[in-house]
Amino acid sequence: MDRPALADFLRRRREALQPSEVGLTVGPRRRAPGLRREEVAHLTGMSVDYYARLEQARSPQPSTQMLRALARTLRLSEDETDHLYRLSGHAAPDRTGSSTYVRPVLLHVIDQLDDCAAFVVSDLGAILAQNRLSRLLQGDRTGVTGVEGSQTWRWFAEPETRGAPIEDQAEASRIRVADLRATWSRRPNDPDVKELIDALLATGQEFTEIWERHEVGLRHPTHKRLVHPQVGVLDVDCETMATAEEGQSLVILGAAPGTETYGKLQLLSVLGEQSLEATK
Fold it and tell me: When comparing pLDDT for 38 and 93, which is higher?
């Protein structure tokens, strides 16, 4: 383990990562570049003291589980992740997982889609990047790591948060589980996949029953209905496209100009985080 080099690498990656890239708001008093140590520690799920010791070159060897979490938080590319492992005295991980690194050009593209909700999602259901309208429509999920960062886990563990009409939820559940089954078939020994499936099996009967059907890769709908607490039901067109990174997809939700849903999306964009009640 090369503690000085590891400390320097972590510090430089932390300072290069912008708060907006992990869903944090930049306050007026922020002077230091990039993320703060406590923000990295919180997003990674470790104590501030432990992360500080990593950057001070006086920590014990981090576990591979901790390194996976750090790689997700710091949005490391595959090469950067391999480097992190080697500096920590571990062999580079097998290339069976999906990358959490979102290419800058893709971030630029989704930010240009100001009248559509656009986001990049991993094959485990983790939202890796969102544009503004996606955050307003679905909530900001880019700063959540681990199992809790998976939209599939949230769908089954916190069903009260589902933004879909009750009559559409059964089919949506089947599609989510079939997608996860396809991911598991590609990399059954991946620890992140196993951790998510174990957590989902613990959520109860709904996931377990669907998982046991062994449905794989059901066709995604090109049209879906969403329910937003401020603007109500939205009938959106849904386009899902593979990206250049393995295990990532770009999802675009929108509506044709002149439709009721397009007007609701425009209203949501204008209101921002305000409450509709506050405007009356």
Answer: 38
CB atoms within 10 A of CB 71: 24
All domains of the chain in start order, with CATH = 3-87 (1.10.260.40), 104-273 (3.30.450.180)
Q: How confident is the model at residue 277 (pLDDT cuts 50, 70, 90)?
A: very low
Q: How far apart are CA 225 and CA 163, in angstroms?
A: 9
pTM for the whole thing?
0.67
Dump the DSSP string for the chain: --HHHHHHHHHHHHHHS-GGGGTPPPPTT--SSS--HHHHHHHHTS-HHHHHHHHTT-PPPPPHHHHHHHHHHTT--HHHHHHHHHHTT-PPPPTTS---PPPHHHHHHHHH-TTSEEEEEETTSBEEEE-HHHHHHH---TT--SGGGBHHHHHHH-GGG--S-GGGHHHHHHHHHHHHHHHHHH-TT-HHHHHHHHHHHTT-HHHHHHHTTT---PPPPSEEEEEETTTEEEEEEEEEEE-SSTTEEEEEEE--TTSHHHHHHHHHHHHTT--TGGG-
The yes-or-no verdict on residue 141 having pLDDT over 60 is yes
187 and 97 Cβ atoms separated by less than 8 Å: yes
